[in-house]
Amino acid sequence: MNRNQELNKREIFRRASFRQRAIAGIVFLGIGAFFSVLWLAAKGKIDIGLWLLPCGFKQRYGLPCPTCGITTSILAFAEGRIFESFYIQPAGALSCLMLAAAAILNLFTVLSGRYFCFARRFFAEVKVRYVIIGVIVIIASGWMVTLARALAAKG
Prior knowledge:
By secondary structure, the protein is mostly helical. The chain contains eight helices and two strands; from the N terminus they run αβαααααβαα.
């Protein structure tokens, strides 16, 4: 490995081109709009129930599905009740936390003109299957907790 490759490996920030800054700005605004709509929905200003279909699993079996509570969790997160969001459904809260981190990193890129190189290295080195397994474990764990609460409330 030559010296330039080694320096690039240790590099934390890299200069962002105009195009990269524009994309980062669009991503930041998109995530901000998403959280704004959720915040308005949590405050009752927008009815998102019109967009959601009833849960067929819950209607059929009377038990919460693996993703039950994600909408409630996301709305709690949008209102700033982060710990409650994790309590309701960890998968929803974790998703929001990752979106918030992405928004912050994109805002940093827009304002400073630099972007973090660690994200590129992270996604290049991490196997997709590990990410998928992690997501499945988080959803399954949240479902087990939700099922335990539902069964405790019934019994």
